Amino acid sequence: MAAAPYVLIIGAVDGELSGLRRRMNAWATEEIGRRPIQRGRLCGVPVRLMVTGPGSANTVQALTAVLEQAPPRLILQTGCAGAFRESGLSVGDVGVASEEIDAHLGIEPQAPEDPPTALPFPVMTALGAAVTGRYPLSRRWSEAAVDALSRDPARRGAGGAWEDADSTAGLPPGTTGVRVVCGPFLTVSTITATDLGAERRYRQFRACMEAMEGAGAAHVACHYDVPLLEVRAASNLVGRRDRGAWDLDLAFRRATWAVLAILDHCRELFQESLQ
Predict the structure, then answer these.
(1) pTM: predicted TM-score of the whole model, two decimal places
(2) Do residues 189 and 168 lie in contact, with contact meaning Cβ atoms separated by under 8 Å?
(3) Alpha helices of 152-205 — where are they, by DSSP H?
(4) pLDDT of residue 115
């Protein structure tokens, strides 16, 4: 079906989008692909919010249904992720993806400490290049996002145009800033839960963040030629699993701040893409 130009914002679980949903103007709910989608505006930009479910399989199904029926002009994927210590990110900091890496796509390596060997054939062609495990993302959008986050007053604890009276999405009181890093994101099917595994994966891929949906979203976005921007906040550090050291609520708040700051500061770019 035909759809007015809009931005599709996706998260794997409801908590990743609940802060945005509370701030939407004049939102209504519809269903695509047997999944509910909320429709409205954020920062004056027409958007739709969709919870895809965790993992690449859910993400691929959800996005394919939407892009077949009501294709957006931009997909903005957000939520929480694990941050690799070597990236310089801490819990609550924000990463912007420069590319998406599928950690499990390839040929089994000879040594277990090595990454999979690249496939001898591409799984697709994107932006004129063969993809065997690394999906290119829109450089224009990633650079615009980093610039927007760097310029947002809330990052310096000064408040932002997106805040409201019951704000749960801002930076905590006394925060002098949040670190923003642009780099590769690693998509895994099994969450890394040991320090040795984290060290190996960083050595293999040099990624700044690890999550479970990005490569699936990137594959669909490349197939349908729709730009994808992925912005996540760190809920934990990749490595030994210690749920006591995780802060999902902080990650959800920071991811909400990041999306709203990007929407607010990139209005001209959004309006250009929606024409």
Answers:
(1) 0.91
(2) no
(3) 195-205
(4) 82
Which secondary structure element, helix H or strand E, spans residue 7, and what is its range? strand 7-11
CATH of residue 222 = 3.40.50.1580
Q: Which residues contact 74 (CB under 8 A, 6 or more apart)?
A: 7, 8, 141, 226, 227, 228, 229, 270, 273
Task: Pull the structure tokens for residue 247.
Answer: 């802060």
Displacement of CA 65 from its chain's centroid (Å): 19
73 lies in which domain range?
7-274
Kindly report the backbone phi and psi dihedral angles of residue 265, in degrees, each rounded to the nearest multiple of 5, phi listed first. -90, -15
What is the DSSP code (8-state) at residue 171?
P
Alpha helices in the chain (DSSP H): 18-23, 56-69, 139-151, 195-205, 214-224, 248-265, 267-274
Per the domain annotation, does 2 fall within a domain?
A: no
Angle between the N-to-C axes of helices 139-151 and 248-265, in degrees from 0 to 180, rounded to the nearest 10:
100
Query: According to the model, what pLDDT value does residue 71 have?
Result: 96
25-32/35-42 β-pairing: antiparallel
**Tokens 């099994």 identify what position?**
190
80 assigned to some structural domain: yes
Residue from 79, 91, 120, 106 nearest 205 by CA: 106
Structure tokens at 192: 């890394």
Cα(266)–Cα(109) distance, rounded to whole angstroms? Answer: 43
The tokens describing 189, both together, are: 């099917």
Domain count, the chain: 1
Residue 118: inside a domain: yes
- Look up tokens 């963040």; give the residue: 209
The residue ranges of the chain whose pLDDT is under 70 are 1-2, 155-176, 275
Instruction: Give me 219's structure tokens.
Output: 């594959």
